[in-house]
Design a protein that fits this description.
CATH architecture: Orthogonal Bundle
Helix content: over 70%
CATH class: Mainly Alpha
Structural class: mainly alpha
Radius of gyration: 18 Å
Number of helices: 12
Largest sheet: none
Distance between the termini: 20 Å
Number of domains: 1
Length: 290
C-alpha cells in the first residue's frame, strides 16, 4: 500500500475535525487545564477514525466496484484483506492508547476503556450495516458522540454534565450531515426535514451566548453562515453541489466544536477549532473527504 492509497482510504483530510472533537470533549468535561494526555487521546481518536474509514471501504468493496470503481480496492491498488487488517489494527491501537490514559493514576478509570470499546463497536457496526440502513445516520452520529464521551471519561471519572448536552447537539448535527451524505448517489436530497437537526448546535450556541457568554457568538455566527452556504448548494442541486455540501458540512464539525470550546474554555481554544475547519477545507482539495 503506497502513501497516496493510505491517505485516500483514511480520508485523512477530515482528521482536523477529529482533533477539534478531542479538544471539545475534554473542555466540555471540565478537564482543564489540558496536559500531555490530550496528545495521546488525539492520536487514539485519529487511529479510530482512520481505522473506521479503512473498514468502510473494505465492507463497501462490492458496492464500490459498481458505483465507485476508482476507489482503491475495486481499482486493484490494494486488497480487501490488507485493508481489513490495517483497519482492525488501528481500532485496537486506539483502545490501547485510551486505556493507557484512563487507567493511569489521574485517569478516569475503567469507564474510559468501556467508552473506547463502545466507540470501536459503533464504528464497526456503522461500517458493516450503513448501506440500506435507515438508522445509519444515527449510528454515524453516535460515533462522533462517543469521541466526546471517550475523551472525557479517559480524563475524568466524573465529567461535567455539560459534556452530554454538547454531545447530543453534535449527534443532531451528524444525523443531518450523514442523511445528506447518503443522498450523494442520488444527486438530490429527497426529504429536507432531517436537515433541521443541523441547527441543534446553533440553538445551543445562541442559548450560551445570551446567557452571559457573548464570546460564543463568534463561532455560532460562523457556523450559521457556513451552513447557509452549504444548504444553498443542497437546494440548488447543480452537478457537484451535493458532494461539495457534504464535504463542507464535515468541515463544519470543527465549527460545532468551536462553539463548545468558546463556552467551556474561551476563544483561544475555539480559535484552534476554527483553524481546524480551515485546514479541513484546504486538505479536502488534495484528498477527497467523502
Amino acid at each position: 500500500m503506497n502513501a497516496q492509497t493510505f491517505l485516500r482510504l483514511g480520508r485523512v483530510s477530515n482528521l482536523p475535525t477529529v482533533w477539534s472533537d478531542t479538544l471539545a470533549g475534554a473542555a466540555l468535561a471540565g478537564a482543564l487545564p489540558l496536559d500531555g494526555r490530550i496528545v495521546v487521546l488525539a492520536l487514539a481518536m485519529t487511529l479510530a477514525y482512520t481505522g473506521g474509514m479503512f473498514l468502510n471501504d473494505a465492507f463497501d468493496r462490492e458496492i464500490d466496484s459498481r458505483e465507485r470503481p476508482e476507489r482503491p480496492i475495486p481499482s486493484g491498488e490494494v486488497t480487501a484483506s490488507t485493508v481489513f487488517a490495517f483497519g482492525y489494527a488501528m481500532l485496537g491501537a486506539a483502545v490501547l492508547l485510551v486505556a493507557w490514559c484512563a487507567l493511569g493514576a489521574s485517569g478516569g478509570g475503567i469507564t474510559g476503556v468501556v467508552a473506547a470499546l463502545a466507540l470501536v463497536a459503533a464504528i464497526v457496526l456503522y461500517d458493516r450495516w450503513h448501506k440500506g440502513n435507515a438508522a445509519s445516520p444515527v449510528l454515524m452520529g453516535l460515533c462522533r458522540l462517543l469521541v466526546y464521551v471517550t475523551v472525557a471519561h479517559a480524563l475524568l471519572a466524573e465529567p461535567d454534565p455539560a459534556l452530554y448536552v454538547g454531545a447530543l447537539a453534535l449527534l443532531g448535527y451528524l444525523i443531518g450531515l450523514t442523511y445528506t451524505a447518503k443522498q450523494e448517489g442520488l444527486g438530490r436530497v429527497e426529504n429536507l426535514w432531517p436537515l433541521a437537526l443541523l441547527a441543534l448546535p446553533l440553538l445551543w450556541g445562541v442559548h450560551a451566548a445570551t446567557s452571559a457568554e457573548p464570546r460564543v457568538w463568534l463561532p455560532t455566527l460562523l457556523l450559521a453562515l457556513w451552513l447557509a452556504l452549504m444548504l444553498r448548494l443542497v437546494r440548488r442541486r447543480a452537478p457537484g453541489d451535493l458532494p461539495r455540501a457534504v464535504g463542507g458540512m464535515i468541515a463544519g464539525i470543527a465549527l460545532v466544536d468551536a462553539i463548545f470550546l468558546a463556552r467551556a474554555a474561551g476563544l483561544a481554544l475555539a480559535a484552534l477549532a476554527i483553524a481546524a475547519f480551515a485546514l479541513t477545507l484546504a486538505l479536502q482539495r488534495r484528498v477527497p473527504g467523502t
